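Structure tokens please, single chain.
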Amino acid sequence: MMLRDHAIRYGFIVLLFGLIAYFAVAADGFVSPQSAVFIFQSVAITGVLALGVTATLVVGGFD
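Here you go.
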């Protein structure tokens, strides 16, 4: 594979891990159990709604 293909395929993952590493060093408490719980609580409602919309689209759309 060419470098461009790797950059397109894995660039976002590398960027994500880079940002996590940066904020882990720069901000106190960024990598903590309380932070993870807060993030999961924040996205729980959106995730449930997204699953419902996905199920509706997979089954055949809206009536």
